[in-house]
Amino acid sequence: MLAAGIIKAWAYDARDEYPGDIVYLAYSSSRLATVATVNIHATIESGSFTIPLKRAGNLILLEADVDGMPGNLILDTGSKALVLNSIYFRDERITGTMLAGGITGTTSDVSNSRIRNLQVSELSFRNLVANLTDLGHIENARGVRVLGFFGLNMLSGFEVVIDLYNSVLELHRLNSRGHPVTERRHAPAFDLEIPIKVESDIVFMEGEISGRRLLFCLDTGAESNVLGSHLPNRVLETVSVFRRAILRGVGSQNVEVLYGQVNELNIGNTVITDMGAIITNLHTMSKTFGVPIDGMLGSDFLEKGVFHINLRRKRIGITLYKDV
Questions:
Q1: Average of pLDDT values for 155-175?
Q2: To bridge 129 with a disulfide, which of 36, 110, 144, 250 should be the other Cys (CB 3.0-4.6 Å)?
Q3: Nearest 5°: CA angle at 225, between 242 and 27?
């Protein structure tokens, strides 16, 4: 049985001798390390504040400081845990290694680490337990210091607003009923608001392609959308395939995938068009999530609008960008 961990993979054109368009894919499961003790201190009295976002390729980055080490954390709603790069935190291991699996199969070792302090803008976290694995391949591909992945459970007490066009992450502290503790000056106007399924702080949402209802993981750590190769032809034939590529994980296993464009995805009563996607087998991802998924919605999807994620109310509101 695979132990839990986070593995990312990249895809490159099979005709090339070097990685080209890099697509990172996350997974999580109920056996991921959880935060032992978290103390969150927000200095903004209003209960709402904004954190700048950076991009490296299509990865979404937060500037952070982990035990005095400055760098970047990848915002990753496809993970429920904090995952750190063993290149920088190998001396903090507190348990032995576990075997971890990813989209290409069994690929890497994961251990745990105890962190004294994590600072992200005005958020301060204390006494954390994090997963630890080698993320050097992401640093090499994107040319930035990657301290790790920042899972959504770190922000479970907030409504999380992702606005990639303006490069900001808004956080609004919630009460026990899932409503902001302070009234906002201007309530958001959503083009669509849909229910979500939340399993272990990971967000799943429904969509439809060619009349087939599909279940997606919302994954800000994925640079591209993903469709499962198990889907019927009437779904896959709606994708305009551009080329074949190789999906390569951090281990020795490679898989061939197709890369193309999703021409029509229905979310609620709204049609979303013109998004990149790869087609690959999602059996391992479904197994580790504990939920059978048909696809993953990543950066291509998030670039379509402003996303308001409320885990307590289990709702997502989306305001689509106009003329962007």
A1: 94
A2: 36
A3: 130
Phi, psi of 122 (to 5 degrees): -95, 5
Do residue 168 and residue 245 come from a single domain? Answer: no
Neighbours of 156 (CB within 10 A): 17
Are 26 and 112 part of one and the same domain?
A: yes
Give the Cα separation of 58 and 233 in Å (integer).
Answer: 29
CB contact at 8 A, 316 and 196: yes
Instruction: Write the CATH number for 260.
Output: 2.40.70.10
Residue with tokens 């409320």: 310
Task: For residue 223, count CB atoms less than 10 angstroms from its CB and return exposed for 0-12, middle for 13-18, buried for 19 or more.
Answer: buried
Number of domains in the chain: 2
In a domain, 180, yes or no: no
Query: Which of the residue ranges 41-45, 153-157, 234-238 would you say has the lowest mean pLDDT?
Result: 41-45
Q: Report the SS3 class of residue 237.
A: coil
Considering 141, 173, 205, which residue would you say is the last residue of a domain?
173
- Beta bridge partner(s), residue 63: 72
Q: Taking the model in full, what pTM does it have?
A: 0.84
Indicate whether 119 belongs to any domain.
yes
Q: What is the pLDDT of residue 111?
A: 75
Helix (H) or strand (E) holding 216: strand 212-218
Strand (E) or helix (H) holding 123: strand 123-133
pLDDT at residue 28, as a whole number: 37
Written as six digits, the tokens of 148 are 């790790």
Same domain, yes or no: 157 and 130: yes
Q: How confident is the model at residue 160 (pLDDT cuts 50, 70, 90)?
A: very high
Q: Which domain holds residue 315?
A: 192-320
Q: Is 67 left (phi over 0), alpha (psi -120 to 50) or beta?
A: left
Task: Let me know: does 169 contact 160? Beta carbons within 8 Å.
Answer: yes
Query: What angle is formed at CA 54 by the lines to CA 53 and CA 56, rounded to 5 degrees?
Result: 145
Could you tell me if 109 and 197 lie in one domain? no
pLDDT range class, residue 46, cuts 50, 70, 90: low
Residue 61 lies in a domain: yes
